[in-house]
Design brief:
Blueprint: E1 2-4, H1 11-19, E2 25-27, E3 40-42, H2 56-61, H3 64-80, E4 96-101, H4 107-119, H5 130-134, H6 138-146, E5 153-154, H7 162-175, E6 181-188, H8 193-201, E7 230-237, H9 239-244, E8 251-260, H10 273-286, H11 305-319, H12 345-351, E9 359-367, H13 407-410, E10 425-428, E11 434-439, H14 459-471, E12 481-493, E13 502-513, E14 516-525, E15 528-541
Parallel strand pairs: 4-5, 4-6
Antiparallel strand pairs: 1-7, 2-3, 6-7, 8-9, 10-11, 11-13, 12-15, 13-14, 14-15
Length: 543
């Protein structure tokens, strides 16, 4: 095995830090983040490429994603003892392959070279190495060159499932006799400004500022994942071949499943059925016996509203409705930290790019107790893994329509009253998004003087309508408190709102800091956007 990660650049350090609860998330210092929506990530520290068989000319020419991949593969090959050339040759080079993936490839190189092109459209300053440096299969190619691997060499690209698919397809290639051993895994370096903004604008990233509370998968307050860089590699080898050369065998891969949602470009299938089938295929191939075998699930757990519900349903559909119902108690003294940088390097390189990929892959492995610790880490993961409430309706493998609250029900938790109660009906959908409606009356107090003869709803009132809709997201916490505006940001007005218009508002919780909430909301009339913005409010106890 080999690993380059925010919590360690070798397997022993990585595992030790996991067990000690070390958090790899921290403030980004490589570039200014003052104007960016997110300022934290899983940062690689202390990486020295020359320690992993790379010379200075190579380092100078290669994107970091390639360097990370080469470094992880170098460690894995060194531990495996495989040699495809020289006096210690113990494998036919044509029987040694590389299945190594990257979701984006040389993202930083693309960003840098495109900036040059924009500045000077002649292109004279574009590096002649631009294409071979940024292309996503270059990491696999250089790994093959370094280790004289002349067998099959493939770059698997399936976004967040990339490394999992690479391992699974390598497993199949060896099982079907196409190779004796394959170096497999994945690498990524995507925490650059455009990567941060792209995922943040897609509402996929957590905007929390405290690293210990940034990633909350399967939690009611989840608000996205945390970007991270790194790489991890495994050497998979046919059993008899490994046994014959006296290799140290760490574990056995026994099953692999691969399905596609065929549903949406980014959103998972809501009922989790295709994801469940993937799990079932892996378990079936592995010969899993629920009466004898223990099952460990390394969840995707992006912390996004859509993924975590669908993923929970997938586990329940595949393994039974009670599989995900048990709540783990969390030591109060332990800080929360992102599993995206602390659970598994292989999953980390997958999770670096995960939004809500349409492909779910599951690998089932049996690990030998003497080589990998089978006991729980010395410090338990402190993230609340209680499934979000919408996932409880699984008997018919569908999500029930949420119940709409009328104005009298709204009054039970909202402190506002007419004429300042600007919600008539509301509900929260299965993805945790609040929806509300309010029809502007002909004689509203705020339109009488704004403007005579041409009444228009003032912008501040539109913001108030959105703010009250945001409060619905925390309705159960409002009793005994009053909601107070804390701020408005990035508010834009696109179309006027007039008496008679039905205002339809959607609101999402982006971040929570104690009793301070940050939400995104938009107000539409007849499908046309009228107002949008980011709002913050506080819950203040009533004395």
């Amino acid at each position: 095995m080999g690993v380059i990660s925010p919590v360690g650049n070798d397997v022993n350090t990585f595992w030790s830090n996991l067990c000690d609860g070390v958090c790899g998330i921290e403030a980004i210092k490589a570039f200014p983040t003052d104007n960016l929506p997110v300022g934290i990530a899983g940062i690689i520290k202390g990486f020295k490429a020359e320690e992993y068989g790379m010379d200075k000319p190579f380092i100078r020419k290669q994107d970091l994603f390639t360097q990370y991949g080469v470094a992880a593969a170098y460690q894995a090959i060194k531990q495996s003892g495989l040699a495809s050339q020289g006096e210690g040759q113990n494998i036919d080079p044509f029987r040694l392959g590389v299945y190594f993936g990257s979701g984006i490839g040389g993202f930083a190189t693309q960003y840098r070279e495109i900036a040059k092109m924009i500045e000077d459209p002649s292109g004279q300053w574009i590096s002649p190495l631009f294409i071979p440096t940024m292309i996503s299969n270059i990491a696999a190619g250089h790994i093959a060159i370094m280790h004289h691997a002349e067998g099959p060499c493939l770059d698997i690209v399936t976004a967040c499932a990339t490394s999992t698919n690479a391992m699974g397809e390598a497993f199949r290639a060896i099982r079907n006799g196409y190779a004796d051993a394959i170096i497999t895994g994945g690498c990524e370096n995507a925490t650059i400004p455009i990567g941060i903004v792209g995922f943040a604008n897609a509402k996929a990233l957590s905007r929390a500022t405290d690293p210990k509370y940034a990633s909350l998968p399967f939690n009611a307050n989840r608000a996205g994942f945390v970007m991270a860089d790194g790489s991890a590699a495994l050497v998979l080898e046919e059993y008899e071949h490994a046994k014959a050369r006296g290799a140290q065998i760490l574990g056995e891969m026994v099953g692999y499943g691969n399905t596609c949602d065929a549903y949406h470009s980014t959103a998972p299938r809501p009922d989790g059925t295709t994801q469940a089938k993937c799990i079932e295929l892996a378990l079936e191939e592995a010969g899993f016996d629920k009466e004898k075998d223990n099952l460990y699930i390394n969840a995707h757990g992006t912390g996004t509203k859509l993924n975590d519900v669908a993923e929970t349903l997938a586990y329940k559909n595949a393994l039974g409705p009670d599989t995900c119902s048990e709540r783990r108690e969390r030591p109060r003294q332990s800080p929360r930290c992102s599993p995206f940088v602390t659970e598994s390097a292989l999953q980390q390189s997958i999770w670096t790019l995960r939004i809500r990929n349409a492909i779910l892959t599951i690998l089932l492995t049996r690990l030998s107790r003497q080589t990998l610790r089978s006991e729980s880490p010395t410090r338990s993961d402190s993230v609340d893994t209680t499934p979000a409430s919408p996932s409880e309706n699984t008997k018919d493998k569908s999500i029930k329509s949420p119940r709409v609250m009328n104005i009298e029900e709204i009054k039970q938790f909202m402190p506002h009253r007419e004429p300042m109660l600007l919600i008539e009906e509301a509900h929260i959908d299965e993805n945790g998004v609040a929806h509300s409606q309010y029809r502007i009356k002909e004689d509203e107090f705020f339109t009488r003087g704004h403007f005579p003869g041409n009444p228009i709803v003032p912008g501040v009132i539109q913001c108030e309508i959105m703010a009250q809709s945001c409060a619905i997201l925390v309705k159960d916490e409002i009793p005994g408190h009053i909601t107070l505006y804390a701020g408005l940001d990035k508010v834009r007005f696109k179309n006027p709102v007039k008496p008679g218009d039905l205002c339809e508002v959607t609101a999402m919780l982006d971040e929570r800091r104690g009793n301070l909430f940050f939400c995104s909301a938009k107000l539409e009339v007849g499908g046309k956007l009228c107002c949008r913005g980011t709002l913050s409010f506080a819950l203040v106890p009533i004395e």
